[in-house]
Design brief:
This protein is an alpha/beta fold. It has two domains: 2-258, Spore Coat Polysaccharide Biosynthesis Protein SpsA, Chain A (Alpha-Beta Complex), CATH 3.90.550; 262-339, no CATH class. The protein has twelve helices and 17 strands. It has a five-stranded mixed beta barrel. Strands 12-14-16-17 form a four-stranded mixed β-sheet, with no helix packed on it. A two-stranded antiparallel sheet has the order 5-11. α3 packs antiparallel against α6.
Length: 342
């Protein structure tokens, strides 16, 4: 049996002031008319049935996701506390294995933009098949469209078969010059689209992840709270994939983007002839390469370039596009009464 796991936690602070505790990033229509969480579940339709899709999220989000996603309520795994993606995915994987001892899992995040669902399914099927046939952890490497310094890269090694190859190493968020070198070497982006057999993930965690392995008996005994109290927070990338020698890669040749900052909207939403992206009642006069989101009364911009302008939740944000990835630093400098949203 093949299972899907969608990670839908986090607060999305880099989309302040639009993203809020009551309406976080996963519930927002950032790349299209439906929320990114809805798009993630829609993407699996006809490939993995909803009764075998698990949603990992926090208590604050669970009810809102249940209202929007066509997934059985029993398939929502509500974390007692945020403890990193390794703990979340180990829990979800062992839960899939509890229901189906031969489970193979496809793991993804709820904040991606993918404009070619058919090509996504081709890559997902290849990743699951590789996990099943080679008993390895598998990552999907995306063919890069630019030398992006915000993504991790995968350098491939020896081929396993016509679809897959061994991963030689990972390289996380390189400097611009190094990113260009990696593209020249044929490196791929590490998408975070993963596949594994439940038994293989457990094996590699026991071998390589002391932050998680000692807590596994809690899950074996059904003690989820004890498991989350016992683990140390770490990502699945750092805690498992970068340490394991049993990792394979398959190629994903489809448009993919991690909608991580306001800057990403310029890549995933339509732009006008001057490169502007707008949402809501916005009028632009002699503007270029601006990203404007307006949930309020009519907004006018004139004669400006490369700005992010957002009005939402009774807050207005204006910043240079180049500073969008560093929005958290701006938020840390704000008075609490301004920063915090309901």
């Amino acid at each position: 049996m093949r299972w899907g796991v969608v990670i839908a936690g986090g607060s999305g602070t880099r989309f302040w002031p639009l993203s809020s505790p009551s309406q976080p990033k996963q519930l927002l229509p950032l790349s299209g008319p439906r929320s990114s969480a809805q798009e993630a579940v829609d993407r699996l339709a006809g490939f993995i049935p909803a009764e075998r899709v698990l949603i990992v999220t926090g208590a604050d989000l669970a009810t809102k996701l249940q209202e929007r996603l066509e997934v059985p309520h029993a398939n929502y795994l509500i974390e007692p506390r945020a403890a990193g993606t390794a703990a979340a995915l180990v829990w979800a994987t062992l839960e899939a294995a509890r229901r189906d001892p031969d489970a193979t899992v496809l793991s993804m995040h709820a904040d991606w933009a993918i404009s070619d669902p058919a090509a996504f399914i081709v890559a997902a099927d290849a990743a699951l098949s590789t996990a099943e046939h080679h008993q390895r952890l598998v990552t999907v490497g995306i063919v890069p469209s630019r030398p992006d310094t915000g993504f991790g890269y995968i350098i491939g090694g020896e081929p396993l078969d016509a679809m897959a190859q061994v991963v030689a190493r990972f390289e996380e968020k390189p400097q611009a010059a190094r990113a260009l070198d990696l593209l020249a070497e044929g490196a791929l982006w590490n998408s975070g689209l993963f596949a594994w057999r439940a038994a293989d993930l457990r094996r590699e965690v026991l071998l390589h992840t002391p932050e998680i392995a000692p807590a596994l008996p809690h899950l074996d005994g059904g003690d989820v709270i004890g498991f989350f109290h016992a683990v140390r927070s770490i990502s699945i990338d750092v805690g498992v994939f970068e340490r394991s020698t049993a990792v394979a890669m398959v190629r994903g040749d489809f448009p993919w983007d991690d909608i991580g900052t306001w800057e990403a909207l310029a890549r995933v939403r339509p732009r006008d002839r001057q490169g502007n992206v707008t949402h809501g009642e916005v009028t632009l006069v002699d503007c270029a390469d601006c990203i404007v989101w307006n949930d309020g009364p009519p907004m006018v911009l004139s004669g400006v370039r490369e700005l992010v302008v957002v009005h939402a939740n009774q807050r207005t944000l204006v910043l240079e596009r180049s500073r969008a990835p560093d929005l958290k630093q701006t938020l840390d400098a704000l008075p609490q009464a301004v920063r915090e949203l309901e």
